[in-house]
Amino acid sequence: MYSIVNLDGTKMDKYVFQYCQKLVILSKDLNSVLLCKRKGEADYDSVYSFPGGKMEITDGSIITGLQREKNEELGESFKIKLASTYSYNVRFVKNDGSIMILPHYLAIYGSGNISLSDEYSEFQWVSLNSLNGFEPKIPNIPEVVQRLMGIKDLTTTDYEII
Questions:
Q1: Main-chain dihedrals φ then ψ at residue 143, nearest 5 degrees
Q2: What is the domain partition of the chain in residue ranges?
Q3: What mean pLDDT comes out for the span 12-29?
Q4: Rounded to whole angstroms, how far apart are CA atoms 53 and 58?
Q5: To the nearest whole percent, how much of the chain has pLDDT over 90?
Q6: Tell me, which fold does domain 14-161 have in CATH?
Q7: What is the C-alpha end-to-end distance of the chain, expressed in Å?
Q8: What is the DSSP letter of 153?
Q9: Which of 1, 65, 107, 131 is the most exposed place for a label (fewest CB within 10 A)?
């Protein structure tokens, strides 16, 4: 029988991974995406990423976890319309060898101002036309946006306000 071990040699349970949901937030006109510059991270420090974070055992559902993360990272007064029916999932292996599953959920800006948490140093609304050339960013950002923009009709999709 095989054992799975972390990079430090400790045994890893074959069913353990982190579930880290991300929000792909488009502007109201659907021409820009919100990216936040990470601060103090072991992986991708000072690089732009989508806001979001790990689901906690106290989260009652994926949606409440997404709402908690949105409130913590962007502020409670910043409202978005979440398309909770669809996600684009990515598997990621961190520098320490741990595995993360990152479901990306599409959202559209609703109202309010961003109150950025100290997990990030700044944010930018990046034009979709300039996204490929925008740096520094996590490399799969354009692909994730493109996949989620492929939802048949963004204007008639069912959204939840969070």
A1: -65, -45
A2: 14-161
A3: 81
A4: 14
A5: 56
A6: Nucleoside Triphosphate Pyrophosphohydrolase (3.90.79)
A7: 46
A8: -
A9: 1
DSSP letters, the chain, are: ---EE-TTS-EE-TT--EEEEEEEEEPTTSSEEEEEEE-S-SSSTT-EE-SEEE--TT-SSHHHHHHHHHHHHH-TT-EEEE-TT--EEEEEE-TTS-EEEEEEEEEEEEES-----TTEEEEEEEEGGGTTT--SB-TTHHHHHHHHHTSS-TTTS--EE-
The pLDDT-based confidence of 1 (bands split at 50, 70, 90) is: very low
* Angle at 126 (CA atoms; ends 71, 22), nearest 5 degrees: 40
Look at the block and give the residue holding tokens 């908690």.
68
Determine the Cα–Cα distance for residues 80 and 103; give it in Å rounded to an integer. 17
Q: How is residue 37 written in tokens?
A: 């510059």
